[in-house]
Amino acid sequence: MAFVLPALPASVRVVEVGPRDGLQNEKVQVPTEQKIRFITQLAAAGLPVVEATSFVSPRAIPQLSDASAVMAGIQPLPSTMYPVLVPNMKGMERALAAGVRSIAVFTAASESFTRHNINMTIAESLEIFRPVVALAKREGMGVRGYISTVFGCPYEGDVDPHAVLAVARALLDMGIEELSLGDTIGVATPNQVYDVLALLMGEGAIPIDWLAVHFHDTRGTALANVLVALQMGIHSVDSSAGGLGGCPYAPGAAGNLATEDLLYMLHGMGIQTGVDLEKVVAATRTIAPYLGHMPTSKYFQAHEASSITA
Ligand code: COA
Ligand code: ZN
Q1: Is pLDDT at 310 greater than 60 in this prediction?
Q2: Torsion angle in degrees (nearest 10) through CA of 5, 9, 15, 17
Q3: Closest atom, ligand 1, to C-alpha of 94
Q4: What is the side-by-side strand order in the sheet with 178-183?
Q5: Is 247 a catalytic residue?
Q6: What pLDDT score was predicted for residue 64?
Q7: Total-model pTM
C-alpha cells in the first residue's frame, strides 16, 4: 500500500512581519535607517508582503515610534506591499499622511488580552475599526485583520474557538478581506490548528483564501502547526526574518516563526514562495548586530555556524 501526504498547496504567500511584530518585541531601539535597510532587503528578497511598522501610540510601542520616518525612507518595489498596523482613526490619519497603501487592524479572541494590549473591550475595538476600515476601503487600500490569542491567552489560558469565530465574522462583516490567526504566546499544538480552522471553514463558512496563520515558536511547535494548516489548504503564512521578536509574556523565549525556517521547509517540500532564502539570511545578518542577541532562526544559526567552519 502506498502512503501519500494529503495535498499541499503548490505555492505559499509568505507575509514578512519582522520589521513590525519582530522589532516591537525586541528590547532595543533599532536606528531608523537600519529598519529601512532591513525592509528594503526583505522586499528585494522577493517577499510579496513586508509589514513595515505600526502607527500606534508611541507610549504603547516606543520601538516603532519612528513609523512616519520609516515609511518616508522606503523606496517601494511594485512587487511588494508594505502594510502597517493601525489601532484607531488617529493611526489611520498618520498612516495616510505617510503614504501608506495597505493597513491591518488588530483585536483578539480574549477580553483580558485586548484590554492589556489596546485598552478596550473586543466589542469596542470592533466599533473603533469600523470607520477606519470604511475609510481604507474608500481609499482603495487593502485591509487585514489580526486576531490575537486564537490558541491561548496569557491571562485567561484556553480560548474557545467559537470566540475566534465570532471575532472573525465581525471583522469580515466590516469588509476586511484577510484574517491572520495569531498564536500570540506560542502555545498552539497541531490539533488546535485543525480544530480552529475546521470551525472557521465549516460552521463559519469562511473561505480558506481569506485566512492566514501567524505562529510564534515559543515552545517549538510553529512549523508543525504550519504543516497542519497547509494540509487544510492554508496558503498564506506569517513569519519574521531571523525569528525576530521575543515574547513579552515569556522573557528570553523565542519569538515569531522565523522566515528562514519556514522557507527552508516549504522549499524542501517543493512549495514555491518566490522568495530567495539566502537574501533573507543576508537581511537578518544586517539587522542582527543591533539586536543584542543571536537571532533565534534555526536555519540562520546553522547557516552562520557552517560559514564560520567552512
Ligand atoms: N498614534 C499616535 N498616538 C496615539 C494613537 C496613535 N494611533 N492613538 C492614541 N494616541 C495617543 C493619544 O493622542 C493620547 O495622547 P496624549 O495622552 O498625549 O493626549 C494617548 O495616545 C492616549 O490615547 P487614548 O485614545 O486614550 O488611547 P489609550 O491610552 O487607551 O491607548 C491605543 C489605546 C490603542 C492607542 C494603545 O493601547 C496602542 O497604541 N496600543 C498598541 C499596542 C500594540 O501595537 N500591540 C502590538 C500589536 S498586537
Ligand atoms: Zn505575532
Answers
A1: no
A2: -10
A3: 1
A4: 49-50, 13-16, 236-239, 211-215, 178-183, 142-148, 102-108, 84-85, 53-54
A5: yes
A6: 97
A7: 0.96
Q: CB count, 10 Å around CB of 282?
A: 15
Query: Which residue has the CA at smallest separation from atom 48 of ligand 1?
Result: 106
Mutate to test the pocket of ligand 1, among 53, 56, 148 (most ligand atoms within 8 A of CB): 56
Which ligand 1 atom sits closest to the C-alpha of 106?
A: 48
Residue extents of the structural domains in the chain: 13-309
Helix axis angle, 122-138 to 111-118, nearest 10°: 60
What is the number of the ligand closest to the CA of 106? 1
Domain at 13-309: CATH code: 3.20.20.70
- Ligand 2: distance of its center to the CA of 7 in Å? 27
In angstroms, the CA 185 to CA 250 distance is 8
Q: What is the DSSP letter of 218?
A: T
C-alpha cell recorded at residue 286: 544586517
- Structure confidence by residue, pLDDT tens digits, 178-211: 999 999 999 999 999 999 999 999 999 999 999 9
Question: Which tens digit of pLDDT belongs to each residue from 110-160?
Answer: 999 999 999 999 999 999 999 999 999 999 999 999 999 999 999 999 999
Residue 182: what pLDDT? 97
